[in-house]
Design goal:
Bound molecules: adenosine-5'-diphosphate, magnesium ion
Number of strands: 12
Strand order of the largest sheet: 3-6-2-1-9-11-12-10
Distance between the termini: 24 Å
CATH superfamily: Acetylglutamate kinase-like
CATH architecture: 3-Layer(aba) Sandwich
CATH topology: Carbamate kinase
Number of domains: 1
Length: 257
């Protein structure tokens, strides 16, 4: 069995600088790319999807700032918003022919001071065994210390990769990969190379409470240390999701060596 984990950025499926604005055409296009791979793949090949929140949840998360003060209403509003986007993604995937099922992090993860402290994989394992595609999303999650905190798709994806033993993981964003100071795509980043590169990578150009590109690369560098390599590529460009799923050399590779 091989398992692929694909994270699609909120910048791809939503208009990030406005309030709760989905890019329905992009969601449908990506769903179709996933559907043709999903129907084509060997039955033993499994797929897990994670999507970002983009303009859903992020503005609410900024407003309530749960790291400063716990607020049940804030938890509810952030979750309701990202769940709305998740429903659109699930409808689109199922309409395209992907047997997708939602998994809401609010009811499946627990955090401790912002770090993942627990997740029960039983539900996901049954879904995978039955040929379904679990779809996670960035969410607000209960936290033993803080009450609640935001858990980004960029952290869920690598966590699941380690837990479930993924063979490949990719993050589709709105840029061609990790760019150097001249704007050229860096073909490969290793933990040693990252030390020098770090200063050229920053957060997001738009509303993003979860670390932007630097957050993504930092998570993937940690993952490379346990032997799982990843790719950051441009999911806003037609055909790129498909290329990643079929194992082509797209965007930036983050690997141990
Ligand atoms: N060195 C870099 N290479 C690529 N993108 C970068 C870099 N530094 C900062 N960024 C920003 O990170 C953004 C991607 O992160 P983010 O907005 O969080 O996307 P996503 O929605 O995929 O999570 C890019 O659009 C870009 O503005
Ligand atoms: Mg992001």
């Amino acid at each position: 069995m091989s398992l692929i984990i694909l994270k699609i950025g909120g910048s791809v499926i939503t208009k990030k600088d406005s309030l709760s604005r989905p890019r329905k055409d992009e969601i449908d296009r990506i769903s179709k790319e996933i559907a043709s791979f999903a129907t084509d793949r060997d039955v033993s090949d499994k797929l897990v999807l994670v999507h970002g929140a983009g303009s859903f949840g992020h503005p609410q998360a900024l407003r309530y700032n749960l790291d400063e003060k716990f607020d049940v209403k804030g938890v509810y509003e952030i979750h309701s918003s990202v769940k709305e986007l998740n429903s659109m993604v699930l409808d689109s995937l199922n309409n395209a022919g992907v047997s997708a099922l939602p998994v809401h992090p609010l009811s499946s993860f627990i955090l401790e001071n912002g770090n993942i402290a627990g997740f029960s994989p039983e539900t996901v394992n049954v879904m995978l065994k039955r040929g379904a595609v679990p779809v996670f999303h960035g969410d607000v999650v209960m936290d033993i210390i803080k009450g609640a905190s935001v858990l980004s798709g960029d952290r869920i994806a690598p966590y699941l990769a380690t837990l479930l033993g993924a063979s490949r993981i990719g993050a589709g964003s709105n840029v061609d990969g990790v760019l150097d100071e001249s704007g050229t795509v860096i073909k490969k980043i290793t933990p040693t190379g990252f030390v020098d590169m770090k200063k050229h990578i920053s957060g997001s150009s738009s509303t993003d409470v979860t670390g932007g590109m630097l957050g993504k690369v930092s998570e993937f560098i940690e993952l490379s240390r346990v032997g799982i390599s990843s790719r950051i590529f441009n999911a806003s460009k037609k055909g790129m999701v498909s290329k990643f799923l079929y194992g082509e050399d797209v965007g930036t590779l983050i690997a141990d060596k």
